[in-house]
Specification:
Blueprint: H1 2-8, H2 12-25, H3 30-43, H4 47-60, H5 65-79, H6 82-95, H7 102-118, H8 121-138, H9 144-150
Helix pairs in contact: 1-2, 2-3, 3-4, 3-5, 4-5, 5-6, 5-7, 6-7, 7-8, 8-9
Length: 154
């Protein structure tokens, strides 16, 4: 849909407007809610609204829980709530039906970053090593290896 296309092109202002219009027309459009929440989170603006949007998306589409829990965990992290971030991200990992997915890789990557920020290098390294294994298998381009190098692990 339009918002996603604009988001992928990097036109975040237009994507925000498209997502807001979609939600105004259909207040049960979970992907638009999640994606708008993700944009707010990555821009570190309207973080309370981002959490509310993502939580609503999760309620509306529980089958998307790994993706939406990743978004929610990262939004909590950006709010400074590491405890809620870890809980959401770990729930997302547990909800992932298949280890070898993009969602699992992103969840583990974000979990590793939150653990690192918390000062738990052992857990951060473990999560990032799992993510690195999946990055190779899933041909993803997340910068997991750089994070492991920063933590002193190979």
């Amino acid at each position: 849909f339009l918002g996603y296309s604009l988001q992928q092109q990097g036109d975040l202002k237009a994507a925000i407007l498209a997502y807001e219009a979609t939600i105004a027309i259909d207040d049960s459009h979970a992907p638009a809610m999640n994606n708008l929440g993700v944009i707010y989170t990555t821009q570190a603006v309207h973080l309370d609204a981002a959490v509310d949007l993502i939580k609503r998306a999760l309620e509306l589409s529980p089958q998307e829980s790994p993706h939406y829990l990743d978004s929610l965990g990262w939004a909590y992290f950006m709010q400074g709530d590491r405890g809620k971030a870890i809980t959401a991200l770990r729930s997302g990992v547990a909800a992932c039906p298949d280890e070898n997915t993009v969602a699992m890789t992103e969840l583990l990557y974000h979990l590793g970053l939150v653990y690192e920020d918390q000062g738990d290098v052992k857990k951060a390294t473990s999560a990032l090593k799992r993510a690195r294994k999946l990055v190779v298998e899933a041909s993803m381009t997340i910068n997991v290896v750089d994070e492991l190098t920063r933590l002193g692990s190979k």
